[in-house]
Amino acid sequence: IPTVSDLYTSGELSPSSSPDPSLQPSNSLNSKISLFKGSITTLATTCIVNAANESLLGGGGVDGAIHSAAGPGLLRECRPLHGCRTGSAKITKAHALPSTHIIHAVGPIYIRAKSQRPGLEADLLRSCYKTCMDLAGQKGGSIAFSCLSAGVYGYPSGEAAEIACREVRRWLEDQEADEEAENKVERVVFCLFENKDVRAYLEWLPKIFPPE
Ligand code: AR6
Fold first, then answer.
1. Quick check: CB of 23 below 6 Å from ligand 1?
2. Macro domain: which residues (predicted)?
3. What ligand 1 atom has the least distance to the C-alpha of 154?
4. Mutation test of ligand 1: which of 86, 146, 149 has the most ligand atoms closer than 8 Å to its C-beta?
5. What tens digit of pLDDT does each residue of 116-166 get?
6. Of all protein residues, whose CA lies closest to atom 21 belonging to ligand 1?
7. Residue 178: CB partners within 8 Å, gap ≥ 6?
8. How many angstroms is it from 74 CA to the middle of ligand 1?
9. pLDDT along the chain (212 residues), means of 10
10. Of residues 172, 101, 108, the one with CA closest to residue 134
11. Closest Cα partner for 104 from 80, 86, 116?
């Protein structure tokens, strides 16, 4: 899977005309980020991230695809977890999937969170990405994210992509600064399934991960 650095070299990713001036270009960050278009159920990363709901008992969208490909052992492992709060995540084994672990993250329902308090939707989505990176950091290796909340939960793709890119960059910078970090996240894959999300990431990745 090509990294952001590879995508700049091949010309598949173009530098942004309006990069964030507060963010420094970094090749070490760009070579840790990848884009993949297709089903997350095919990826053999250490962790894959499921867009779950608070019950953790399965559903439609990527959650349905993951449960049906992982097999019934996944639901058996999820039942005793007793659900998960919005903005957080819990980890299981990957069962019949090619990855090793599944991180089940519960993203916000966009309209509901925003109507509770403007900005709550972004806080909750950011908290999902942070919790997933923390859990993946305990395992080391690689993590592939689905576009949390960007399906039936109604989060606009562009806003969701900006939050995902910013939070992952912030987390990786913290990891680089922490010399004592034991298990490291070496690779982050943004797994995109729909063209609206592809367009959003082609816009936001060059702003948050500019070329050197
Ligand atoms: N691989 C990768 N991404 C996928 C796949 C796949 N196989 N299938 C869909 N997507 P959604 P949400 C993308 O609706 O908005 C479920 O019923 C899709 O294009 O799956 O967080 C849960 O049980 C979209 O960009 O999750 C919850 O009840 C992204 O996955 C609720 O939906 C997320 O869309 C969660 O809603």
1. no
2. 20-209
3. 15
4. 146
5. 999 999 999 999 999 999 999 999 999 999 999 999 999 999 999 999 999
6. 149
7. none
8. 17
9. 96 93 94 98 98 98 98 98 98 98 99 98 98 97 98 98 98 92 93 98 97 92
10. 172
11. 86
